[in-house]
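Supplementary Note 3. Input sequence used for the single-chain structure prediction.
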Amino acid sequence: MNTVKGQGPTFRLLMPLEPGAPSEQPSIVARGKRWGLVEYNALPNRTDAPDYTCISYVCGKNQIVNPFDDKTKMSDRTISAIETILTNESPKAIWIDAFCVPSDPTLKAACLSQLGVIYSRAEKVVVMLSQVVFSVLERIGETKTLNNEMIGTLERDDWVSRAWTYQELVNNDNIRFTALGGSTYTKADNILNSLTIAIDKYMKERNWDSFDFYSKYPRISRFEDVILDWKISRYLERSAYQALSSIDDRVATNAEDLSYLIGAISDNPITTVNPPDGYSFEHLLQVCETKGDYSFIYSTARRSNKQGKRWRPANGERLRPIFATHSWGLQSGIVHRTHITLDKMSILQLGSLNSKAKTFIQNRLYSPKEAKDRENWPTLVFSRLSLAGFSGCGDFFETEHGYFYTHLPIENHDGMIIVISTEVQMAIGSPGLLLKKEPSEIYKWVGVGLFVGRVPKVCVSVNVG
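The predicted structure, written as discrete structure tokens, is reproduced below.
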């Protein structure tokens, strides 16, 4: 294995070997050429690293011995994926996980935490799909329509549903789709734009809204959210909440796979990983705090029992958003020894819905239009949210601007304060917190919730202990 000399290798590329390369040098043969690994001392912002193509593919269940490390296994699709690339183009270098992610636990963790950087700096990303799925996407691109068979194929597809593909897709503007073993490329923006149009037509034909669609096809619905994410947000502009929502229902071989979405929100490498402990959501929290994004506070995770840190998820807890849907905006704040100050929050007043809130809920939640008795609205709204995966208990507070649904049951509503984010928002409202007034100016943490209604523009800073 060739190494560019320096402090130590941190970035690998698969590259064609020179004709005179030693025969004993580990290599693979693809399209009649020998390819070997070259290691660099830094990620690909260095002028000494060539342009390269990233390959995104599903490994499958069948494994063979890795030719570059006989102690590890790799997918039997790896060589086919590389040969597919070489059928369509002549890249100077290739990045593919089976060969380019080190097996050493510490180096592997550091590499995986920087997948966002690796994919964002690639000349292009090529997504390898099955022949069946690629054909379906091509038909959608041509007709901008869906039928039950087509959408069922996409719903069952491994690439659409697996956790890793989130950041493999969203971190690069130049995406190409192809079939494993195929000889043609299709631009991602053409297909993905057509898919959103086709889904919209499909729902209108059945008089469905997004909640109905999610209840039938949760994976493709979440995939549409990822498409919106890719189209609207640029690399490193995403919040933790946005990324957590996009991978919430995705399939992962290991729980820690979900926490590696760090690469979609930060380009800071992980350098403090203890190999026996591996990588965890705690690292994600640390990176978010360094970035100044506290949107992870709107997760359903159990909280720390440390004084002044009860707003922070407990160590080792999986971070799941209070409601996984397309969102935008980071939550700003400042951490103090005794509390956190959350910026641009809105404190809601309990009371009957005002006229603007009524109109908003009717237009966004659909079912309340059919309710003659407004007392049933909270139940109807909650049922719509549940269709889309909301895990709240059904308890709610009515405010002038909308309904606030709590994640956990609240036995005593006395003295509760509802604050919602004006920075992290979604089409139906925003996430928020349930707090309790204390003698000091620091509110006591009670729990998280989802606000459905018009987010007020007036905002204040709130101290949470």
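The chain has two domains: 2-293, 334-464. The first strand starts at residue 2 and ends at 3.
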